[in-house]
Amino acid sequence: MIKINNLTKHYQAAQGKVEAINGLNLEVNDGEIFGMIGPSGAGKSTLIRMLNLLEKPTSGSITINGTDLTALSSQNLRAARQKIGMIFQHFNLLSSRTVLENVAFPLEIAGVRKKKRLKKAADLIELVGLADRIDHYPSQLSGGQKQRVGIARALANEPDLLLSDEATSSLDPESTRAILELLARIREKMNLTIILITHEMGVIKDICDRVAVLEAGKIIETGSVIELFSRPKQSLTKKFISSVIDFNIPSRVAKYMKAEKRGELIRVSFVGEKSHDPYISHLVKHYSVDANILYGNIDEIQGVPFGTLILGLEGELDKIEESTAYLKSQGLAVEVLDNV
Amino acid sequence: MFETIMGLSRYNNLMWSGFLETMYMVGMALLFAIIGGIPLGVMTTITRPNHILPNKFINFILDGIINIGRSIPFIILMVAVIPLTRLIVGTSIGTTAAIVPLSLAAIPFMGRITDNAILEIDQGVIESAQSMGASPFQLVFKVLLPESLPAIILGLTLTAISLVSYSAMAGAVGGGGLGDIAIRYGYQRFQLAIMLETIVILVVVVQLIQYFGNKIAGLFDHRS
Ligand SMILES: Nc1ncnc2c1ncn2[C@@H]1O[C@H](COP(=O)(O)OP(=O)(O)O)[C@@H](O)[C@H]1O
Ligand SMILES: [Mg+2]
């Protein structure tokens, strides 16, 4: 539904030209939650702000449901924007309006009659769980509550697409989880496509279907979240993943392995049902190697088990090689660790 | 003491009409400041670069008008616009005539205050409305003005207080009002008590304006 073609954005800053986005191509499918992660300054905000033309692209096209946004007249663009909701890191609510009036605001802009828009807004406020705060002003709400208002407001015109620019970045972990759950729930309920940008891998891990890793205005890696977590290619991706899943060998294990290195050390990563299969006992039985589990970590990505094991394999060298080949043949990612 | 007070009460009518004249001048000039100054301020802000309707040329002109208007000392403005005052009011003397220079001073003042008040609004709030498809007109009337209303009301309060003191100056050159009384009776005829009384009334008026200005602004301020 969303097609981004050869998109670039250059800024003319006092210090010279800034190439914030550099020939970026991307497709996002209907109904998916697409995450974009990248370090600060990678161009994430620039990119997402071009998706509703808050930022005008230097070149390239953005096609949403067959319409090229960059070709629209300003009046048509305003109409198109009504079908693209957006939520922000700092919520950006109107301080002079109550919760109800804030949520009704986009409907007011769209010219919906007062009675109808207040009813609609009240329903949405109910949906995001703020019915008891309907007449409060934003200043009387917590960050998490403000973001719920932001979400209700973004949904008011029944958009097809929701853009989220670091929507949980200024929230505490508990509110973050609640907001992400809410986003996942409304995606199901309203058949929405969500594009969210974040610098936190935890957000990607919790609710995204697919993800793109952004660095210096380019996508350096993209794929399903499970793919990315189980087979990261770029070092930046690995770095992000290691912030939520511990890949590093604890120093206790490292010390042990240095002290008495025998055989081979391997790191095995597995995804999904494979975690239930008895590989290790198979190794021990059929390849006559000893497998010491030195370190293990099993996590879950959206209900799919995902784990890492560090094994010390002891036995004859060719047996060890055979056993790693066996593990690989079972679809596990195996990495030999020689310099610990 | 008693005699002084009794003496003063002879001037009660004089004081009362002076007070009404001052209120008339200040009130009318404030009205023109609202009608002229607020749109001037809004237009200046929104034509700034990176605001909702950037336009270098218009912004340069409007910003220039505000700066020039604000830099002319009131006493000079009063004299300089006499021909214009004659043209509009038919005379350059009296309270109604004084409204012309008072308004011309208040409009750019209020323009700058409105400009500053709107600039205070978080860019993100404006962008969020833009992301919903708001037109520039909707942005002005549904976002910029409501969000800056408390600051604009405080600005009007400030303008009103400046107008009280300007109106006293206008009184000195035949504009009427409390300033006129202070000069004619207090200074020229050396009736110190009358001068003091007008000062007391002016102080009370200023206090009241500030008090109610704060109160009204508070009614519209939901930021904390
Ligand atoms: N209005 C602007 N003018 C000049 N440079 C900008 C502007 N907005 C963003 N940039 C630059 O573009 C790059 C990408 O910024 P941004 O998209 O905000 O990154 P991110 O959201 O990933 O942290 C940065 O180098 C930033 O300094
Ligand atoms: Mg950003």
TrEMBL record, chain A:
Gene Ontology BP terms: amino acid transport
UniProt keyword annotation of Translocase present: yes
Domain ABC transporter, first and last residues per copy: 2-241
Keyword entries, A-Z: Amino-acid transport, ATP-binding, Cell membrane, Membrane, Nucleotide-binding, Translocase, Transport
Domain of life: Bacteria
Signal peptide: none
Record SUPFAM superfamilies: ACT-like (SSF55021), P-loop containing nucleoside triphosphate hydrolases (SSF52540)
Pfam families: ABC_tran (PF00005), NIL (PF09383)
GO terms, molecular function: ATP binding; ATP hydrolysis activity
One GO cellular component term noted in the UniProt record for this chain: plasma membrane
InterPro entries the record matches: AAA+_ATPase, ABC_transporter-like_ATP-bd, ABC_transporter-like_CS, ACT-like_dom_sf, MetN_ABC, MetN_ABC_transporter-like, NIL_domain, P-loop_NTPase
The keyword Cell membrane is assigned to this record: yes
Family under the similarity heading: Belongs to the ABC transporter superfamily.
Protein name listed in UniProt: D-methionine transport system ATP-binding protein
UniProtKB/TrEMBL annotation, chain B:
Family annotation (Gene3D superfamilies): MetI-like
One record GO biological process: D-methionine transmembrane transport
Segments passing through the bilayer: 23-46, 58-82, 88-109, 151-172, 192-213
Cell compartments where the protein resides: Cell membrane
Protein name: D-methionine transport system permease protein
Stated family: Belongs to the binding-protein-dependent transport system permease family. CysTW subfamily.
Provenance organism: Halanaerobium salsuginis
UniProt cross-references to CDD domains, sorted A to Z: TM_PBP2 (cd06261)
